[in-house]
Each structure stands twice: as C-alpha cells, then as structure tokens.
Amino acid sequence: MRHYLQRNRNAYESSVLAHVLPFIAGAVNASGFFIIGTYTSHITGSVARVGDDLAQGNVKGALSAAFLVLSFYLGAMLAGALAERAKVRNKSPYSGTLEAETLTLIAVTFLGITEPKSVPWLNTVTTALLCLAMGMQNALVTNLSGAVVRTTHLTGIVTDMGIETVRAFVWILQISRDPKSPGVLRSMFRYRRFPELTMLRLHTAIFVSFVLGAVVGPYLYLRYSYASMLLPIAMMTLLIAFDRLVGFRSQTKAASESQPPI
What we know:
The chain contains eleven helices and no strands. It has 262 residues and is an all-alpha fold. It starts with a helix and ends with a helix. 34% of the residues are buried.
C-alpha cells in the first residue's frame, strides 16, 4: 500500500489540493453558518464589517467582526508554528496542522450538541474554533501549494479563472488560425500542459469542489445537525493517514526535486 501511494504521490497530492481540501472548506464554512449564524472564512467581509460598524458607532459589532479576523489569524499562526516545530524535529510539517484542525472540528461537533446560538459564550467559542480551523487550513494549503492555491475562499480563484479563460481562448484562436495546426481538439490534447489550460483546470476543480462542499455540508446539517461535521472529520483523518504513510511534499519542493541538476 505504501509503495503504491509513493509511486502515485503527485496525482494524490494534486487531488487533495484540488478536490479534498476545498470540499472540506466549503462544507465547514457553509455548515458553520447554520451552527453559529455567520461564515467563518470571509476575512475580507469581516474586515469590511469592522469598518461599517465603526462608522455607525456599533463598537460591539465591530469587535465581533474583528474577533473573526483574529481567530483566523491565530489559526494561520498555529499552522505555521506547528510546521516550524515539525521541521526542527525532522518530521512532516503538515501532520500537526491536520491533527489540530481535526481536533478543532471534533470540539465544534461536541459544542454543537448544546446549540451554541442559544448560549452567547458558547456561540463565541464555536465561532473562534471554526475560524481557527479555516485559518489553519488556509495556511496548510498555502505551504503545500507553494502559495499558489487557497481553499477557504474563492475570490482569487474566480479572478484567476477569468484571466486564464481569456488567455486560453486567445491560445485556441491562434491554433485555429494556424494552417499547420492539427486542429483545436488535437492541439488541446497534445498541449494539455499549456500553463493557462492547466491552471484553469486546477482552479475550476477547486471551485467545483468548494461548491459541492458548500451544498453537502448544509444538506447533512439540516438532516443530522451537529453530526454533519463527522464527514470533514473523517476526510481529515484520511489525510492524516496519507501523510503518515507517505508524507506530503510542498509543490515548490516537489518541483525543485524534479528539475535536472545543472
């Protein structure tokens, strides 16, 4: 099993980045809205809320929004600290973050039994834990992808998709006008590693995976309440097992290892 995973490491790591982690983020973020009444990964929106509330003299609302930002920030810090600690000990820099996020979601599941929206301080703790989990995941994916991919929000992803779609369309037009071209479809298959097409596929996969998670998460919550968190917890547990068996590599490191020596 270990040897099989090692031989297919790149394919599995790409699938984790493009499908598994965005699905988890979408499920947790959307389910979190039903649990605590707010989204937990929209840091831009939370910062905007701070400004809006301060402008209206609503200091309590501004502090509440700032608390979301702080919790997300602390989650990213925790992931970074765990990664650095693992490097010092010559261990996988990602297992600690995966385990911490899993434990955080388990805590959210148990707190969900108490219906935190009806208890102010429990609602605050649950909100902090969900933001903490999203901060950890975003930092984890940033390290894994070499700062190319984010999975907890789609603003940058959709922006990149728009730019890459235009570039891909221009490339297709150039191919179609080239009399020596074997045809658009053959060219797309032959040149499937064309950067714009490759990144467009990646970002589209992330977008679709996040949306699916955002549908499945609330769907399960509406039927099974707090137990809906068991799905992302199970998925995180499988990722931990993969990291224990094979070990994730950052895409930057993997790319440098694949380059021939000069």
